[in-house]
Structures are given as C-alpha cells and as structure tokens.
Amino acid sequence: MSRVDRARLRAALAREERRFADEHPRSRALHERARRSLLNGVPMNWMVRWAGGFPIVVAEGRGPRFTDADGREYVDFCLGDSGAMTGHAPAAVVEAVAARMARGATFMLPTEDAVVVGEELRRRFGLPCWQFAVSATDANRFAIRLARHITGRAKVLVFNGCYHGTVDEAFIALQDGVPRPRPGNIGPPVDPSVTTKVIEFNDVPALEAALAPGDVACVLAEPAMTNIGIILPRPGYHDALRAITRATGTLFVCDETHTISAGPAGYAGAHGLEPDILTLGKAIAGGVPAAVYGMTAEVAERVRPRIRDDEADAGGIGGTLAGNALALAAVRATLESALTEAAYAETGARTRRWVEGVEAVIRETRLPWHVVRLGCRAEYWFSATPPANGGEAAAAIDAPLDRYMHLAALNRGFLMTPFHNMALIAPGTTEADIDRHSEAFRESVAGVIG
C-alpha cells in the first residue's frame, strides 16, 4: 500500500495556496473590502472554511459551470451543496420566476401553482398531504413540532454526525459515548441532551434501547447520512428502524434534502421506505429558497383536530414567506422540467464515470482509500473501508489532506463540496469534464504520496 507523505503534503499545500492567491487577485481584493462591512468578510460565517485563505467571489453561473470575479471558469461539483443540484439558472425556472415576479411575488394567499405542486408531490413521493416552508431547516423544525404535538412526547432522536439545518435539537454529538452539545454549537438555548437522544447510525440495539421508554416523538434522520460524508444504511437497517418506530409509537421523519440525489422520489422512493413525514429543501426550487414537508394520511388526521383555526397563526409553524408565489412557481418548474427521470439518467451515468475515474487512480497508486456513491452524488474517503456511522466517519477525517485536495481541485477548475471530498453532478456535465477531473485527481494525488 502507498501512503501520504506528510512532508510532501505540507509542501504541496503551500504551493497550492500560493497559486490560489496569485490567480485570484480580484477575489482577494473583494474579500478584503468585505471585511469592512461583513463579519470575517463573508456573508455567511461558515464561508471562512473554504480552502485557500479567502473564498472565490462568483460572477455568474449556468448549468454545471460558474465563473469567478477573476474570469476563471469552474466545473461546479458543489452546486450550492444541493441548492443548485439541477444546475445554475435552469431555463424553465428562470422563465417561471421572471414571469411570476412580474405578477407579484408574495401575497400570504395561495396561487394555482400551490395546487399543482401539491398534486405532483403526492404522486411522486406517495404522501397525500403537503405543506411549504422557506428552508429545510424550517421544514424539519415544523415536523418536530407536529410530532411532539400529536404524540405528546418531548424527545427527538437523531444520529451522531447528523446535520438537519439549524435545528437546535440536532446540534448534539456523542463524545466518548456521552451525549454533549456538538462542538461549535453557538449559544444553545438549552443543553441539547434535554431535548434529544443521540445514537450511532446503523446500530439496531442502540435504536431499540433509545426508543423503548416511549418518550421519543420522532426519529429525525437522513435515510443515508451525507453531512459527515456519505454513510449508507446497512442491509435491513431501515426495516428494523420502521419496525421499532411503529412498535413504540415513534414517528419517522425522513430528511431527503441531500438524498434526493438518489432519484426523482428521493432515497425513500428508490428503496421503498415508508416515512411518516418527509422533508425536502434546497434542490426543490432550482436555487430559489423553498422547502416542502409531506405526511401520511394517518399523521394528517391526527394533526387536523389538534390545531384550532383561530390559533393557526400562533403555533410556531409557517411564516409570511412560506409558500410564497415566487417560490411555488420555482418549485413547479423544477419538478416539471429539472428533477426528472431523464435528468437523473444523465447525471447518474456521469456520476458512475466520476467514480470509475477516481477508483482507477486509487488502484494505480495503491492508496487505502475508497469511493461511495449515492445516485448523482459521490465521495472519496481517506480510509480503506466505508464508515458505518458518524463516529467512524469523524475518526477518518484528515483535515490537512482535505484542505489540500479541495484547493488542488479548485486550482485545476473544479469546486468540490466543502467539508467533504464529495461531488454532486448536474445535468450538462460532460464526459470530458469528468475525465478532466480524473486527470486532476491523479495529478493531485501524485503530489503527496511517498
């Protein structure tokens, strides 16, 4: 087996940092200017984590590509971490949004698009009753509120290493087997162990033990974990999860915000899962902020009598921009023209080619790495075997190597998803793009192995 030479890695990272700074003078100047008005010079504070010392500043994007302020073009494998999964500025969405904007964007009243979208969501995901939100965070937050309301239970269960947006209950982690606030959790209103149980993914005995007391309103979970890297469920795990949740009267809230990469009906549709509530954001509106959450007929019938009409505006669910006309026009256009069987067939084929190219380099260099794929999303790991849960995934992280690989890719014209070595493939990505990435990956790896 080959190995990464740490001295070569430090030298290679220094070279890539110098190259990045030299090739992005306008982005650097704009970042320095932004430091006078934006916290740490960025519009969202997590952007300080981009590799390179400062983030590149985007000028425009179309399809699977974007151009930065220095005029450099990139193949985008990040795609807004799923927000632009259908590609940047998809034509049908641009047309629908422009037309809707000219006729008014928000009214606190339904439009016909809401009816059409609800019908399509019912057909596609098999859940009969839907609501709208501005973000997946909101959809998950509302799902938790509904679950608590109809079960009379206070607790939520999540998996170690999860991320479900800025939902307070999910900012919890296992540290040496003890539930604690997730590192970096800013100003938690309460210790999350008061509201939440946390266990490792793929651990059936732990799931049984956590749900046995009957105090958990819902399990909030991605059907395959993606926010600490792609972690696939073991065979039979979802069957066990559904059997245990049903036996204990616990609702299963399935967060498909990233796993919509598995197919037009998400991971649940592709694998026949039967969630009680399904949440989905980001990709649903072609880049316009929007989210949806759907529920079974049984859940809907439990919700209706427990929410009085004269109190419907004060329950902590909704908002003046939830289900606004502009977002619903974007969702309709995205479902009808972008999140289609044909699009998934194209991106699935390109993703398989991406995986094959990366795996070929790993074999050639004899590195103990592997690749995991989830539909049109794939990721390489710096470990010989796939992690089974968040704890194993966290232990496999190699921060200096992560930074180098991201920056080397960026300097060669590819933007990877931050915090992971993950690629999401948009329609319009060509075989030539994929093959060029394989060569860039080969060059980057060659620079650090001993």
In summary, what is this structure?
With about 450 residues, this protein is an alpha/beta fold. The chain has helices at about 5-25, 25-35, 90-100, 110-125, 135-150, 205-210, 235-250, 265-270, 295-305, 325-335, 340-365, 390-395, 400-410, 430-445, and strands at about 60, 65-70, 75, 130-135, 155-160, 170-175, 180, 195-200, 215-220, 250-255, 275-280, 290-295, 370-375, 375-380, 415, 420-425. The model has no long low-confidence stretch (mean pLDDT about 95).
What would your notes on this structure say?
This protein is of the alpha/beta class and 450 residues long. 39% of the residues lie in helices and 16% in strands. The protein contains 14 helices and 16 strands. The longest helix has 25 residues.
CATH topology of the largest domain: Aspartate Aminotransferase, domain 2
Order of helices and strands: HHEEEHHEHEEEEHEHEHEEHHHEEHHEEH
- Tell me the name of the CATH homologous superfamily of the largest domain: Type I PLP-dependent aspartate aminotransferase-like (Major domain)
Radius of gyration: 22 Å
The helix content is 25-40%
Cα(first) to Cα(last) distance is 10 Å
Into which percentage range does the β-strand content fall? 15-25%
For the residues shown, what is the average pLDDT?
97
CATH class of the largest domain: Alpha Beta
